[in-house]
Amino acid sequence: MDKILTVVIPTYNMESYLEKCLDSVLVEQVIGLIEVMIVNDGSKDSSLLIAKRYQNRYPGSIVVVDKKNGNYGSCLNLAFSLAKGKYIRTLDADDCFDSIELVKFIEKLCSLPENIDLVLTNYVVNIVGTGKSRLIKQKGFFEKIYNHIIDFEKNGIIYNIHAATYRTSVLRDNHIRLSEGISYTDIELLVYSLSYCKSLVLFDISLYRYTIGRQEQSVSMSSYLKNIDHISIILHRIVDNYNIFFSESKLVYKNQIDALFPLISIFSRLIIIEKRIKRSENNSYVRLLESVMEKDSYLSCKMLALKMTCIFYFKLWYNGDRCKNKFALNSLFLFISYLKKIKTYILQ
């Protein structure tokens, strides 16, 4: 039976969560239509054993790929080349799907025309230790097929890794490759793929269950600080290959910048108020952010439109790290006012 969807599960030391994740995907009604690709990224715990045990139980639906550690991007690069599903999406091993919603989603995918490149859905955020959850819901016209990419922000459309499913051939045929050996490359996938997506559809299906609040997660502030060089590498790659990665369409380009913006927001916060970063490194990060601004007028306008708050933090940083380009510094400072909204952007 042909597979309609490949679910890629990058896995590194996820023995505590992997079984729950897999159980949420292996739903009897649709299991024959799904390829579950577990990419074991050099785990040192029993993740690989768990994956192989499930593969033995579901040999027609589970593929286990064991590789040396190369981080998230390397897992997806491999999956793009191996996937058999018409569509492809990711699922973190410490998250899960809503099994009932998955059945609905597969039914919708099977009914789609041949040429739909991007499918966007709702998702739910679960907050560890609180028992609270939040539905992140799309606001566009559900099940309407758009034969062109529209302004996501203007139409209330949420575009992130938890909402997105791609036609596999779009990623494979256009040789989408993510940076390897670093974190946060899901942002690269969001940005790079949009240049090639020509059509989309929204489904009122709350498929993904995204858990936040674990200290070890890559989206915790301690992880951002630890891996600030990873963010720097991504931004350098974007600056160095600007004309390759970004669309000539102003509308698609705007969506790409909006997808990139949360990562730049976090980067700005770190280089402005984190005194644990060495000054020499801080200055190089400032120059990098300036180069991003110089490349992109839309991003600069977004920064300048923000209200000026938290001036105390700005003065501390500015007095400690004098930089010649005061205009750029003022622009950086404007990001501080956005910090209250960063959490919302991450959830979206």
UniProtKB/TrEMBL annotation:
Cross-referenced InterPro entries: Glyco_trans_2-like (IPR001173), Nucleotide-diphossugar_trans (IPR029044)
Molecular function, one GO term: hexosyltransferase activity
Glycosyltransferase 2-like domain sequence ranges: 6-160
CDD domains in UniProt: Glyco_tranf_GTA_type (cd00761)
Keywords: Transferase
Record's protein name: Glycosyltransferase family 2 protein
